[in-house]
Amino acid sequence: MKKILLALILIITSTSCFAVIDREKITIKEAVEIASKNNLDIQASRMNLQIAENNIKSANSLQNPSIGAQFEMGKAGKGNPQQIGVMQTIELGKRGPRKDLAKANKELTKRDIEYLENDLRMDVREAYTNLLAKKAVLTTRIQQEEILKGMLDFAKQKHSKNNRHSIDVLQAQLEINQVTTEVNSAKYDVKTALYEFNKVINCPDGFYDTIADNFTSEYRPLSMPKPTAQMPNFDEISNQAMNNRFDIKIALQQIEVAEKELLVELRKKVPDFELIGGYSYQSRGMSDDGTFKNGAFVGVNFINIPLFYTHKPEIKNAKLRLEQAHLNYASVENKAENDLKKAYEKFLTAQINLNYYNETLLASSEELIKESRKRYKEGKIDLTTLITMEESYRMIIIAHTYALADYYNAWNYFIREVNNENFKVTEETEEV
Questions:
Q1: Cβ distance 241 to 418 under 8 Å?
Q2: CATH assignment of the domain containing 186
Q3: Which residues pair with 273 in a beta bridge?
Q4: CA atoms of 419 and 131, how far apart (whole Å)
Q5: CB-hemisphere CA count at 13 Å for 365?
Q6: Binning pLDDT at 50, 70 and 90, where does residue 165 land?
């Protein structure tokens, strides 16, 4: 009993809090556009491109020069020049590979962002569909509640001459109470789905809601096939999808990055050289003949000669990372094939289920419930039988709603795996 009271309090308080939020109603297309443009996570990830661009400039930079001076003091300076000069380290064969590695990492960053953006669009579509499904279920339960209230009024009128509550009246009231709890639960489900929808959009400047309240009013899904459309065979889809998948492109780019990293490590074995040049002079007091002398000096030093340390550990690690990248690519490709098969079969099953509801269950159940309501009013069946039929009909309508949601989500899942939002089942795009 305490749990029931607590649940009612939560529903009442959440309803009051929920009502004050200003919601902007948007289409599924607008939801995708808003999220793609304003999602905070995507905005943060796009900054990685600027970081990658800066890394290219950093990798291509020259070594900074050094300025030094050498002064001989006392007798040691007699006849020796004083020097002020500049030293510049020149890298041999290192800047180019570093820059190429930075460019490869930038391309990898682009692939990662494309993957995240595609995932976001799919998440928005699924969240929109789920919210719409919860709204449709709520609508169905409210409609059923109104029908039961009508049955209750009819039962009261039918037995008003007896001046007492009949079993029909009590039973109708009990069923209404049951459906009312289902309505309250459905309202909570809608609120939860609404917050999940806005969590996916993750936009700081608004709170959004679907423009439609079910799958038949004002809802325009993004391009997708009719439930009766014939899907191509799996091999045809697989050949097209494997070339488009972002995870495979990322795995390929990781191989290129690993190759560039190996080259960078190998080039570390190449010595660099240092150019030295500057101004040289002898003061009158320090020169042998007592006159001021001046001139210049130049020199070359080879540095970073791999004599004691040859960078073998770094090179071995780079080779291992390259081998890992190749293994990862093979793994990603294998998993992608299986994920694609799973998505393909899921969509075909969702098609079959939805068509069964559309072609068989809905029509027969609607005909049956109409006849049952008519027979009850004519006194040919009792209320217990009608309530049983109403419950069955309500379950079929709700199940059909979820079958619709499964169909839309199965398509979203399929194009997520295909990585092509414009995938066409036939040459002419078929819209639901």
A1: yes
A2: 1.20.1600.10
A3: 90, 302
A4: 24
A5: 20
A6: low
Angle among Cα 345, 349, 351 to the nearest 5 degrees reads 115
Give per-residue pLDDT as tens, 367-391. Answer: 888 888 888 777 788 777 877 888 8
Residue from 185, 219, 47 nearest 116 by CA: 47
What is the residue-averaged pLDDT of the chain? 85
CA distance 203 to 208: 9
* Count of the separate structural domains present in the chain: 1
Per-residue pLDDT, 7: 45
Q: Which residues pair with 300 in a beta bridge?
A: 275
Q: What is the 3-state secondary structure (H, E, C) of 246-310?
A: HHHHHHHHHHHHHHHHHHHHHHCCCCEEEEEEEEEEECCCCCCCCCCEEEEEEEEEEECCCCCCC
Q: Is residue 293 assigned to a domain?
A: no
Between 286 and 307, name the one with better pLDDT. 307
Residue 84 domain flag: no
Q: Minimal CA–CA distance to 193: which of 218, 212, 180, 210?
A: 210
Task: Note whether residue 402 is domain-resident.
Answer: yes
For residue 123 the two structure tokens come to 């998440």
Which among 166, 184, 163 is positioned nearest to 174, based on CA atoms? 166
The Cα 11–Cα 22 span in angstroms is 19
Name the residue with tokens 């001989």: 72
User: Any long-range contacts for 326-330 (C-beta under 8 Å, 24+ apart)?
Assistant: 326/255, 328/251, 328/254, 329/248, 329/251, 329/252, 329/254, 329/255
| Residue 159 confidence (pLDDT) | 63
Collapsing DSSP states into helix, strand and coil, what is residue 171?
A: helix
SS3 87: strand
**Model confidence over 45-64: pLDDT tens digits?**
999 999 999 999 999 998 89
Q: In 10 A of CB 91, how many CB atoms?
A: 17
Establish if 386 belongs to a structural domain. yes
Banded model confidence at residue 260, pLDDT cuts 50, 70, 90: very high
Domain that holds residue 132: 2-38+91-271+306-418
Count of other CB atoms within 10 angstroms of residue 250: 19
| SS3 call for 90 | strand
